[in-house]
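Help needed: design a sequence for this.
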């Protein structure tokens, strides 16, 4: 009969026969071979407490290869996070400034019709968002037109709410993803990663918009709207990504519990132990 040693398993260890998590089980010493063993309370199988044998020098090479591939995959997801935020951030500015662009085109057209820009030599109605503008009008008339129209907030095209809604869903997904992937870090670290990638994307949005020559209505409207729209966009991103980070692991645990029977959840036990929770146990027969 194996005799107790007084020690117990302190880490996750799956039974080789049924997959039950042996954490907390008592360590025994087998008398015949003088080996340390542990008995699975689920199926009764006896397992020796020894490391898996070294397969060959290729085992370490394969491990390093998979680690490198995993890092590259994470870098790809990081690029995907930043790229998606870049696209939606630029889209939010474009949609929000659409109404202002049309207003500026119309005001510029009236300025031309009044003979203040081109001497009244030609009458042209500007209703397109990409109406080319005279720099004199931008320098002298644009501030007055913006004030008389009610300011930036009154000119926001609120169709941008749909863009923010889509961005919120996307950032929630990225929050869930990074909170589960970065199990070795605290949740706030995952949130910091998302905000850092999002801030980088917003910076590139700023460069893209500021690189315009601002001689047409849409570029002028986007430059004017950028700070206001991005402030709201950043709040949406921060709130939704934070919600994703806070609920991500809970959602992952729910999916695992719905998809796998208890004894098959052991390899994914870190989803529980990382947050100080007990691993799910098999249902007693």
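Sure. Designed sequence:
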């Amino acid at each position: 009969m194996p005799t107790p040693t007084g020690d117990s398993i302190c880490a996750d260890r799956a039974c080789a026969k049924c997959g039950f998590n042996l954490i907390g089980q008592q360590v025994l010493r087998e008398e015949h071979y003088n080996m340390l063993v542990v008995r699975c309370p689920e199926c009764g199988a006896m397992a020796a407490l020894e490391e898996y044998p070294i397969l060959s020098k290729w085992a370490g090479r394969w491990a390093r290869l998979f680690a490198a591939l995993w890092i590259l995959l994470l870098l790809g997801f990081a690029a995907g996070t930043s790229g998606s935020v870049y696209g939606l951030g630029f889209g939010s500015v474009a949609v929000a400034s659409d109404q202002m662009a049309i207003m500026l085109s119309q005001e510029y057209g009236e300025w031309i019709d009044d003979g203040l820009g081109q001497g009244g030599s030609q009458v042209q109605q500007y209703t397109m968002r990409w109406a080319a503008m005279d720099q004199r009008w931008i320098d002298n008339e644009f501030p007055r037109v913006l004030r008389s129209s009610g300011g930036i907030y009154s000119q926001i095209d609120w169709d941008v709410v749909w863009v923010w809604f889509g961005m919120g869903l996307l950032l929630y997904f990225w929050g869930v993803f990074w909170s589960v992937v970065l199990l070795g870090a605290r949740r706030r670290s995952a949130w910091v990663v998302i905000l850092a990638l999002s801030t980088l994307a917003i910076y590139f949005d700023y460069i893209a918009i500021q690189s315009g020559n601002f001689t047409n209505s849409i570029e002028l409207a986007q430059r004017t709207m950028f700070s206001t729209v991005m402030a709201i966009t950043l709040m949406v991103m921060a709130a939704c990504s934070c919600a994703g980070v806070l609920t991500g692991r809970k959602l992952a645990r729910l999916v695992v519990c719905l998809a796998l029977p208890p004894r098959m959840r052991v390899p994914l036990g870190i989803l529980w132990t990382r947050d100080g929770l007990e691993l799910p146990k098999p249902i007693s027969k």
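The radius of gyration is 31 Å.
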